[in-house]
Amino acid sequence: MLSRELFWGIELGWITYLLGALVIAILGYLYYFKIVRWRSGQEEKASIHWKDQALQLFRNMLSQRLLDDQKTWGIMHIFVFYGFIILFLGTCTLMIDSHIGHFLFGNTFVIFKLILNTAGLLAMIGIILLFLRRYVLKTANGENNIKTLLSLVLPFLVLITGFLVEGSRLAINTGDNYGWQFWAFPVYPLVKLLQPLGRDAATTAHALSWWTHMFISFLTITALAWTKLSHIALVPLNLFYQALQPPGRLREIELSEDYFGTENLSGFTRTQLISIDACVSAGRCEINCPAFNSGKTLSPRTIMEKMQKISNSETTLVGDDIITEEELWACTTCGACQQKCPVLSNPVEKIIDLRRYQVMALGNMPQTWQGALMSLQRRGHPWNAATRSRLDWTKGMDVPVAAEKKQFDVLFWVGCTGALIDRNIKVSQAIVKLLQYCGIDFAILGNEESCTCHMARRAGDEFLYQEMAEKNCSTLNRYAFHTIITACPHCYHTLKNEYKLPDVQVLSHAVYLRELIEKDLLKIKTAAHPENTTYHDPCYYGRINGIYEQPRELCELAGVKLIENEKSRENSFCCGGGGGGIWSDDKPGTRIFETRAKQLLEQGNIETIATACPFCITMLETAVSNLEAGDVKVKDIAELLANQIQDR
User: Which of 515, 585, 528 is nearest to 561 (CA)?
Assistant: First the structure.
């Protein structure tokens, strides 16, 4: 009857148990140093939701959904992942069969071997194709060092030697117990090759391949600590801690005499240090980074790689030797690296922590940012040259102010740009026109409103953010309302995800206006002459908060001919205005906003670029002007609707 004896044909096979214990001890010893490195970081303030985080971890692991956009190469990784999972479970099953109760015989054994051989073959195919991608086609990112090479070669050798053991065993014994069966199809050629050489040659090949297989297997286990194979242990750990982290939300920190941001590795939290080590240099961050793809020196991948190589936790990170200031300030915090990273390493939060130390401890920042932050401190908004008050734009519109009404249904959070910059005032006026048309009971804060400091926080000034957040929350708590709407994605994200407003619903103007149309309060007529229009997704509406459909629906309801850009929705490209980028003075050839405008204009005869963010409007209008793109207009979705209101 078909079955398999443990250590068949092998003398002193029991020694492998001692070797296995030694290997586990070595692995533990190597990981001890990693744990010491992690524990040098700041203690995490957030609580752990064990059940929810574990469930999300298993969903991510089993579905491999974070590899979805890599298509072919993602499938190859799935082959390797599930191949080795099945082989590992098969080894455990074999140990149970040998030491606890014998059940692998007959048809059960046939099915067992068929599954394992198929899994091993698929894993081999996956490794071969991944090797070709990196070393022949050279389309993979990251360093091609010896550790990267061994992370492919060692698992491949484990599989090859495993099949050699199987084939030589079958070549030795062709009787009922180990005769050729269909389940051994991957090693059939080897069986036919060894059988003519005789039993002695096959026996020697079996013993040699068996011990080689065990040696390479044990070496591969230790490699879980010193090659890229470490991601097998580190990625699940990182995914567990990152599982419930909302995109774009920064962790809460307590400023003190001991902490003003991150100067070195010990300034990061322990989970952040784990995520640094979990980075596999896949390069998805780099491929999708707007700064990198616009000619800037920043690469999120190399930032993570540089920090991985540092052995001393007290080494200063920002400087010419490791992370340059040019790299640090180039990030727009768009979240593309976080969204596309297959292991959720999140370079953005590390960059912001490093900025905090530069700004709050050293007073170091780009010169063009200094005026904006000083204006925020003195005047409550970043526009140093603005001479208007926050109520000037309302003249002649009969806009209600919260201080006069006290109680109302909806608070329209106008934002600094919407209240003080001429171009964006038109958007605020369009929204008021729509609200008044629908008879909404609303008000604005007017001169009581201050900047949410979304930009200041991501620029590194956490102190200013916390001070302004406390002031704004105190102001909001003075009035009775149930909904906040805003036309600024940065204000929206901060009010919704980072301020503590538990009893208030925060909505983007896109979502709220769509609801008004659904309730038949806002009636829109179709444009007589539909313009070719493409929609640009603001990062903090789309990628960060998942608002994709409503803005497009509003564009179509306004009667435009919507042309979807190749880089849109989840694959959209930042305008360059986020993270303080709107205050930067970029050199020609490295301007993200010009790169983005070229992308938007390359598909067809585009007449209008629609968007839903004041910074995107500013950046894209500047780009259209610089590129001399003719009569192309940049409009907010509220402006499109306001021009198409039906008569009462």
Answer: 528
* Neighbour-count burial for 136-161, b at 16+ CB within 10 Å, e otherwise: eeeebbbeeeeebebbbbbbbbbbbb
Task: Tell me the domains of the chain and their CATH numbers.
Answer: 64-240 (no CATH), 252-364 (1.10.1060.10), 381-518 (3.40.50.1860), 532-642 (3.40.50)
- What distance in Å separates the CA atoms of residue 535 and residue 567, rounded to the nearest whole number? 10
Angle CA 244–249–251, to nearest 5: 85
Low-confidence winner among 139-143, 335-339, 343-347, 590-594 (lowest mean pLDDT)? 139-143
Q: Under a CB-based contact definition with an 8 Å cutoff, are residues 209 and 164 in contact? A: yes
pTM above 0.85, yes or no: yes
CA 170 to the chain's CA centroid: 48
Tokens in use for 108? Answer: 């059960």
The closest alpha carbon to 633, from 624, 643, 644, 646, belongs to 624
- Residues in a beta bridge with 366: none
Question: pLDDT by residue (tens digit) across 260-298?
Answer: 888 999 989 999 999 999 998 888 889 899 999 998 999
Round to the nearest angstrom and report the end-to-end CA distance of the chain: 87
Element (H, E) at 616: helix 614-626
Worst-scoring range by mean pLDDT, 132-136, 184-188, 468-472?
A: 184-188
**pLDDT for position 177:** 45
SS3 sequence, 97-143?
HHHCCCCCEHHHHHHHHHHHHHHHHHHHHHHHHHHHHHHCCCCCCCC
In 3D space, the residue among 370, 325, 355, 544 whose CA is nearest the CA of residue 459 turns out to be 355
